[in-house]
Structure formats: structure tokens, C-alpha cells
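Action item from last week, closing it out:
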Amino acid sequence: MSEPVVSDSTCLIGLEPDGELAILPALFDSVMIPPEVEREFDRSFEWLKVENLASNRLAAALQMVVDAGEAEAIAPANEKNCLLISDDKQARAAAKRLGVSVIGTVGILIRAKQNGSITEIKPILNALDENQFRINHELCDEALKIAGE
């Protein structure tokens, strides 16, 4: 395991239907979500920790450019100086402007393949596509190349 992360709901919602959420606790020491993400995801797991925001100021300001779940995820990632899991383009850009490191669902799959948590990413990418999870096809091709598939 490596570092703690804060996640918005996109990755959780994307990986859950095909039972791939176990990838997250296999990769990270701690997976945290803020209350709004808990509401959006509407599921609980022992390893998924709901953490209240230390301050609502940054999240409130971020809601001018991203939705509430993403804003509430960026704020603690910034406060705790930890990795953010987000696939939302605007949320990723806002986080990066704050100096927050960001990884998306495809990046998680590549990491999981590289550390042996999964053996292939292609079936998961296909399942995401079948479940209407929007991923750029060029990104998928690049991920498959990186993963050696």
C-alpha cells in the first residue's frame, strides 16, 4: 500500500457495478470521502472513511467551478496534502491549480496492474464503457499500451 487518498464519487460509481472497488483499498492506505460524496455514492464499505471537512471555505469557493462532491473532495485533499481521485476535467484542473496531485480511474487501473492487484485492465475498461462511463478512447489505448495489453 502507498498513500492515503480522497475520492470524489466518479471512480466509486464507475468501479462498483462490476465489483472492482476492492482495487482501492489494495492500492491505498486509506480511502477517504467527504459527506457529499457519501450522499452521491450512497453505499458504504468498511475501508471507505467518511471525513467531515475541517473548513468549508475552500469547498464553498470551489463550488463556483465544480459541483459540490468534487469541491468537497478537493478541499480535504488540499488540506491533508494527499492524492485526489477524480475523473472530472474541471475538478482535476482546479485541484492542480491548488497543487493537489490527481489520479483518475484509468490511472488507478494502471497502478493496480503494475502492483499485481489485477492481472488485466482491458476487461475493466470494457465494463466501464458498457456501463456508460465516459473514457476517451485515446486514453484507453494509451493505458493498454502502458499496461502491456
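Closing note: The longest helix spans residues 68-80.
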